[in-house]
Amino acid sequence: MSKVVVVGGDAAGMSAAAVANRGAQPVELVVFERGEYTSFAACGLPYFVGGQVPDAARLVARSPEKHRANGIDVRTGHEVVGIDTAARTVRVRSTADRREFTEPFDHLVIATGASPIRPPFANIDAKGVHVIHTIPNAVAIDAAIRSRQPRRAVVVGAGYIGIEVVEALVSRGLEVTVVEKLDVPMATLDPDMGERVGAAMRAMGVELKLGVGVEGFEMGADGWVRAVATSSGAVAADLVVLGLGVRPNVVLAKDAGIALGPTGAIATDARMATQVEGIWAAGDCAESFHRVSERPAWIALGTHANKQGRVVGSNVSGTHARFPGVIGTAVTRVGSTEIGLTGLNERAARAAGFDAVAQSIEGETRAHYYPDAAKIAVKLVVERGSGRLLGAQIVGGPESAKRIDALAVAVWNEMTADEFSQLDLGYAPPLSPVWDPTLIAARLTAERAR
After folding, report:
1. Are 332 and 186 within 8 A, CB to CB?
2. Beta bridge partner(s), residue 235
């Protein structure tokens, strides 16, 4: 029986362990997790802070105790601090007493995830300056709101994390200012679509300071943050949340001589194997293959982490499996405005060497005569001449974002805009106009691409 050691007990790591535990060949499984939680929904953290999820415990899909009951040796409070690829061992440190020991492996699964970016700003360790990446992070923000009753909050960064935190803090009654170094929110969108997200935040009463860099934090005599120092002056703050994105946790792998890819994440093949035999990587620490650009990509999403973990779990337990790649499909919202994207935006398409054509349209989510129809903007990016769909973006009111899924299927399967425009999509006045906005966008973009 081979021994499988998993480093990291969240989405990728526990998916790998669970699949291996049911695999074609029996394996001995040991999972080391430095925190106290396993299999928790990091994407749900802003909604706990916002009050939509009343209890942080509900974010845990499967506790360590449940995994142990299923036969997986999960050891929380244990951090892997070194890998010896020649001896086939890992060095493990207990977070409680700092005791170290070695653990042998036949297969090693690196699922170390990613960590929030914390630049070396002045006074970044001031009380009241938070990140939101783990359950304890979210609990600390909630506790600060309850105990300190802050009035003014500053969110640094206007990407996915930032805009979801904005919604959470607004729903808790705080006055929110967003400081973003770029000129528009949501850099994964094209600027014209990002501007729509900015307009939605302003409509919620959020102040946007765009094109403004953070220089540090000012704090009072009690050690609590009182302002954010920026390139355009100080912004008063009783609470700060950093939403600057994440970086892959690769130091453990790099120190062991395991190769990194051009994105800075761990390089893997389609089986999620590294260049070292018997060592695998999955989740936010691992690189993926982008099916449109046909280049390495690093996209930190739980959907990919779970799938990659399942692939690794199959491979270490006797079943051949491959991860087919990513196209970057994602949805989110801020207030009542929903956002969806898939594939490449205009900038990324041209950087990948495509002669790209883009077209945007505005429509409504329901028949024009049906009550409460919401505005929706759809933008498609296609290849000139072939008409192949390269990417899509949606920004609109309720019932907008999940329309991106049909477009994602089309991008994944290399459909043309003309082919998509003829799809047999569902129609009923409460749910869609007779010509869905995505079909209209496809027809008009196909005409431009000829």
Report:
1. no
2. 228
Distance CA 396, CA 153 (A): 26
Mean pLDDT of 327-354: 97
Q: Give the helix ranges, DSSP H, for 149-204.
A: 160-171, 191-203
The answer to whether 231 and 209 have CB atoms below 8 angstroms apart is: no
Alpha-carbon gap, residue 307 to 270, rounded angstroms: 12
In tens, the pLDDT along 53-72 reads 999 999 999 999 999 999 99
- Distance between CA atoms of residues 433 and 400, nearest Å: 12
Please indicate, yes or no, whether the overall pTM of this predicted structure exceeds 0.85.
Answer: yes
> Burial of 212 by CB count in 10 Å (0-12 exposed, 13-18 middle, 19+ buried)?
buried
* Edge-to-edge strand list for the sheet holding 330-334: 330-334, 337-343, 389-396, 375-383, 356-364
Handedness of CA 440, 441, 444, 450 (dihedral sign): negative
- The answer to the question of residue 107 being in a domain is yes
Angle between helices 302-316 and 11-21 (to 10 degrees): 30
Task: Tell which residue, 69, 72, 48, has the closest CA to residue 60.
Answer: 48
List the catalytic residue out of 43, 124, 139, 276. Answer: 43
Give dist(CA 179, CA 125) in Å, integer: 18
pLDDT tens-digit profile of 408-419? 999 999 999 999
Residues forming beta bridges with residue 89, ordered by sequence position: 84, 104
* CA dist., res. 331 & res. 401, Å (int): 6
Q: Are residues 231 and 124 in the same domain?
A: yes
Which structural domain, as residue segments, surrounds residue 335? 330-449
Burial class from Cβ neighbours inside 10 Å (0-12, 13-18, 19+) for residue 443 reads middle
Q: What is the pLDDT of residues 309-326, one digit of tens each?
A: 999 999 999 999 999 999
**Known active-site residue 285:** no
Q: Would residue 321 count as lying in a domain?
A: no
Cβ count within 10 A of residue 93: 18
> Quick check: is 353 in a domain?
yes
**CB within 8 A of 234, min separation 6: which ones?**
218, 227, 228
Same structural domain, 111 and 27: yes
